[in-house]
Amino acid sequence: MRATHSGFMTPPVLPRLLTALCLGLTGCGTLPSPGTPDFAYKNLAVADGSAVAGDGNNILFQGKPMALSGMGIKVGDKLRDVKLVQTDLSMVNINETKGKGKVRIISIVPSLDTKVCEQQTHYLSEKNKGLDRMVELITISIDTPFAQKRFAEEAKIANVTFLSDFRAADFGKAHGLLLKDPHILSRAVIVVDKHNKVRYLQITPELAQLPDLDEAFRFAHSLITAS
After folding, report:
1. Cα-to-chain-centroid distance, residue 199
2. How far, rounded to the nearest angstrom, does the alpha carbon of residue 192 sit from its chain's CA centroid?
3. Active site residue: 9, 44, 117, 208, which one?
4. Residues facing 59 on adjacent strands
C-alpha cells in the first residue's frame, strides 16, 4: 500500500488505514509462535469465517464497510484468465504460472509495506509444513513489481512467486476482490487444484485480520494426498 500510487487515497484515510494494517486487531485467535529467528512474528488476529467476493458485498475496516468491486468468485469456479506482472516485469497469466498443473496456494494482500501483510507473507513462506516442495506458493498485491522484488530480497523469501496487479487491478476486478476505494486488494487466501479450480477460499471479513493459512495448508495437503 504505497501512498505514491496515483488516485490511491487522500488523507486522513490513508494514515488510519496504514496504522491499522500495520498493527492488526485483537481477537479471533492468533498465529503460533515463530520457528525462525529471522522474522519476529506477532500475535495478530486471525479471521473467523469469510466474506463474499464481488459487487454488492463488503468487508470491514475497523468496523466500517468497504465495498468490494468486480465479478465475484466462489469455490467451484475456475480462476479467470488475467495477466499479472512478475518481478522481472514480464507478464504472466494467473493460470499459466510456473506451478501450472499443481495445487497452488494464492495469498492476496493489500500491501507488503504493512506489518499484517508482511507477517502473512512470511507465514506462507516459512510455516507451510513442507508444502512448498509440492505446490506453488503465490503472493498477489497491488504493490509495484519493484517493491515486491525488494521485499522478497530483504525478507530472504525465495519460495514464493510474487505477482503484481498494479497496472489496472485486473485480477482484483476479475475475481471481485478489489476495494475500488482506496484501490487495493482485499485480504484473502485461495487454494486451486491442478485444473485451476478454486477449492478453498477465505476473504477476511475484517481487512486488518489475517486469513487462516493453517486451514489453507491443510486443505492443500488434502488435495495432494487425494490425487
Report:
1. 16
2. 14
3. 117
4. 66
β-pair type (160-164, 136-141): parallel
Q: How many residues does the chain have?
A: 227
Backbone angles phi, psi at 182, to 5 degrees: -105, 30
pTM: 0.84
Over the chain (227 residues), the average pLDDT of each successive run of 10 is 36 44 39 56 96 97 93 97 98 97 97 96 97 97 98 97 97 97 95 97 97 98 90
Coil, helix or strand at residue 92: strand
Find cell 469456479 and name the residue.
77
- Whether residue 162 contacts residue 139, with contact meaning beta carbons closer than 8 Å, is answered with yes
Q: At how many degrees (to 10) do helices 115-126 and 213-226 cross?
A: 30
Q: Rounded CA gap, 208 and 61, in Å?
A: 7
| Catalytic-residue membership of 22 | no
The CA distance from 38 to 25, in Å, is 23
CATH 1.50.40.10 for domain 13-226: no
Domains in the chain: boundaries? 13-226
List Cα–Cα distances, 116 to 109, 112, 146, 201, in angstroms: 9, 8, 20, 19
H helix or E strand, kind and range, residue 164: strand 160-164
CA angle 131, 218, 1 (to 5 degrees): 75
- Give yes or no for a contact between 70 and 51, defined as CB atoms under 8 angstroms apart: no
**Which uninterrupted H or E stretch holds 86?**
strand 83-86
